[in-house]
Amino acid sequence: MVESYQHILTVIMKRYLTTLLAIAIIITLILIIRRSYIQYNSIVSIRNSRWERVRIQVRKGFAPDPANDKLIFDQFLTKGQARAFTIDNGDDIVYRRDLDPNHADGIHFTPWTYANCDGSSTCTVYDP
């Protein structure tokens, strides 16, 4: 019996260390998931309240030639319509519209414009 009392302290310490290790792993996983998925998402919205129908192109990135960047969408928006999409905070968004919105030809566009979201989780571009 004396031998079993000597090992009680070791058994208790192992349980505490196992519990602390499990808590540390859970906290680490929560922080990794939060950092990877939650903090870096932003919602960008494009709204048209000016023209009857306008074609808008939106790309992710801000290279010297945005035509090489990833196309997010290329759509027509009628008056009063809006489109929203999710991006990473670190990514830059550029957009352009038809040069003459009332006579869209899909060839002549305005210059690419940077959508300045200033690190916000939501960003709205009115009448691009």
Instruction: Give the total of beta strands.
Output: 7
Overall geometric form: rod-shaped
Unreliable stretches (pLDDT < 50, length at least 5) are none
SSE order: HHEEEEEEE
Radius of gyration over alpha carbons?
A: 27 Å
| CATH class call of the largest domain | Mainly Beta
Q: Classify the helix fraction into a percent range.
A: 25-40%
Number of domains: 2
CATH architecture of the largest domain: Sandwich
Major sheet description: 4 strands, antiparallel
Number of helices, counting only DSSP H or I runs of 4 residues or more: 2
Average per-residue pLDDT, rounded, comes to 80
Strand order of the largest sheet: 3-2-5-6
CATH fold assignment of the largest domain: Immunoglobulin-like
- Report the span from N to C terminus: 83 Å
Instruction: Look at the helices and sheets and give the structural class.
Output: alpha+beta
